Amino acid sequence: MRLHDLVAPILIKQLIGSDEVHIDSVTADSRNVRPGSLFVALRGYTVDGHDFVRGAVEAGASAVLVEEAFEGLAAPQIIVRDTRAVIAVLASVFYRHPSKSMKVIGVTGTNGKTTTTHLIEAILSDAGHKTGLIGTIKTRIGDREFENANTTPEALELQATFREMLDIGTEYPVMEVSSHAVELNRVAGVDFHTAVYTNLSQDHLDYHNTMEEYRLAKAKFFSRLGNTYEDAADRNKAAIINADDEHAEYFLKATTAQTLTYGIDKEADLRAVNVKIEADGVSYRVLSYAGEETFRLQMTGKFSVYNALAATAAALVQGISLADIKKSLERVSGVNGRFESVQAGQDFAVIVDYSHTPDSLENALKTIREFAKGRVTCIVGCGGDRDRTKRPLMAQIAEQYADLTVITSDNPRTEDPDAILDDMEAGLADVVKSRYVRITDRREAIRYAVERAKADDVILIAGKGHETYQIIGRTKHHFDDREVAAQAIRGELA
Ligand SMILES: CC(=O)N[C@H]1[C@@H](OP(=O)(O)OP(=O)(O)OC[C@H]2O[C@@H](n3ccc(=O)[nH]c3=O)[C@H](O)[C@@H]2O)O[C@H](CO)[C@@H](O)[C@@H]1O[C@H](C)C(=O)N[C@@H](C)C(=O)N[C@H](CCC(=O)O)C(=O)O
Ligand SMILES: Nc1ncnc2c1ncn2[C@@H]1O[C@H](COP(=O)(O)OP(=O)(O)OP(=O)(O)O)[C@@H](O)[C@H]1O
Ligand SMILES: N[C@H](CCC[C@H](N)C(=O)O)C(=O)O
Ligand SMILES: [Mg+2]
Questions:
Q1: Are 226 and 256 in contact (CB under 8 A)?
Q2: Could you read off the pLDDT of 19-39 as tens digits, one per residue?
Q3: Ligand 1 binding pocket includes 202 (Cβ within 6 Å)
Q4: pLDDT of the residue at 212
Q5: pTM of the model
Q6: Is the Cβ atom of 49 under 6 angstroms away from ligand 1?
Q7: Which of 74, 382, 434, 456 is the most interior residue, by most CB within 10 Å?
Q8: CA of residue 259 to ligand 2 center, whole Å
């Protein structure tokens, strides 16, 4: 592709050299530069991509896209105000706008993104559609699956993924859209067909500073939806909003697309009534403009009803019947690491869950309280190099709902594991010591809880869900809560 054509849609401050060169790859990582590459310098959190511009040209870059001019550079330079803002547009142009030829469904919100995307994907593929998936657990393109560094990939990787999906005939990419992704313009060039909002609660305040900023990042996603009504596919573009969430009105206002609401407590286009939560599932009746059905899910908790309602709304918009949606959702046994139960022949319950925010932890524990016959133990930690303000809150929530709380390590990353536990313990200052224990080693914490469990008790192991590793320092060690719990139950950890 000619550089001239590639950069045609962007506002250029200055062009140094010729834009007639040929570009056959675009990258923001100097380590991937080869002859024919356009290197885009991004200012990161750890380093500045501009420091690698000269190196990129030495490695053969055919041109660079930068925010400041470099003297005596042996390659053409395109200078723009904000490279991060234009990279998403470039990525879409370079891969020939694949999102325009598919119906991209994006799910955003603090909790429930992974679960909801999996549910939507299950319904659509049961209905005979070719789907793709992008999110926390994995990306799936046709039969090819791989793990991601981030929940939502950077724009170039995202558009390359869309291109590959389109080339094999995918109709529906279903993806998680994190607030970081919106803020960092990872999804700016994506033509979404359906946008789903789950909820908003505290997380990532290390990054977004205030809840208001965090909410704005999510709102940007909805404000980009709509405004095009060129063909039939555009016409049923929709924003799907959780009516029970306190920010519902805000998101409804943020979009010009058609909207569909879902809820349990408040009036909504899709409403669940008669919600009955049990240990092995939840049942409810959906009242909607598309009819009524009683659902019996294999997943439990009120939050599962919300995720299922969101998925139901997203599927109704695509023209799938409520009866077919019911069949698909009832077939789903659960999502990897989300409220997953560990069975190793014990007479108490062990549940592994990815609750790593105050809100999700509270939901998980409230749900357990609804069916637990015996004592409830909560094993919980907080990730290092992440939002510190959630630490005391998560410890408090665990202590409030559980009979025994074991605070332990999650992924300490580059922080001192004990300093993280100090932050958590600060939330337990008024709590009698017998209600909680502090065990830094996660394996030991799980063993401690399992050894003390009696018939009918419930142990919640929160925070890591599907993760099969623990990051200590910069090293990823193999660690799987489900595996460790089973070993503890079988007495193999002693
Ligand atoms: C805060 C954040 O989002 N950071 C992302 C960012 O890292 P960074 O800003 O530190 O990048 P950097 O290392 O400073 O590099 C800056 C630029 O220089 C380039 N570079 C660097 C070195 C070199 O030799 N040559 C070179 O060209 C890099 O390719 C990059 O373009 O760019 C990286 C490369 O794309 C991302 O992997 C990284 O995500 C990190 C792993 C991360 O932890 N992100 C989290 C906070 C995140 O995004 N989470 C959300 C939500 C999670 C949820 O679901 O709750 C997500 O979507 O995953
Ligand atoms: N709708 C919901 N509301 C509140 N909590 C939820 C909801 N759905 C799931 N949870 C809880 O949050 C945890 C994470 O769920 P899930 O992985 O689906 O969310 P996510 O938004 O993808 O999270 P992440 O941002 O970490 O990728 C679950 O293990 C469960 O405890
Ligand atoms: N996508 C989230 C996952 C957190 C999971 C938890 N186990 C942790 O490590 O904090 C993040 O990177 O903030
Ligand atoms: Mg997720």
A1: yes
A2: 999 999 999 999 999 999 999
A3: no
A4: 80
A5: 0.91
A6: yes
A7: 382
A8: 23
Query: Terminal CA-to-CA distance of the chain, rounded, Å?
Result: 62
Structure tokens at 304: 């599962």
Give, as one character, the DSSP assignment of residue 434: G
Ligand 4 centroid to Cα of residue 136, in Å, is 4
Q: Within the chain, how many helices (H) and strands (E) appear?
A: 17, 24
Alpha carbon of 342 to ligand 2 centroid (Å):
19
Q: What is the pLDDT of residues 8-18, one digit of tens each?
A: 999 999 999 99
As a whole number, mean pLDDT of residues 425-452 equals 95
Contact in structure between 349 and 298 (CB atoms under 8 Å): no
Structure tokens at 439: 């065990």
Atom number in ligand 1 closest to CA 45: 9
The answer to whether residues 487 and 479 touch, using CB atoms and an 8 Å cutoff, is no
Nearest residue by C-alpha to atom 54 in ligand 1: 151
Using alpha carbons, list the distances in angstroms from residue 474 to 226, 414, 415, 469.
42, 6, 10, 12
Q: How confident is the model at residue 257 (pLDDT cuts 50, 70, 90)?
A: confident
The two tokens of residue 331 are 């077939």
Name the residue with tokens 């592994």.
352
Q: Parallel, antiparallel, or unpaired: how do β-strands 258-263 and 238-242 relate? A: parallel
**319 conformational bin, left if phi > 0, alpha if psi -120 to 50, beta if neither:** left
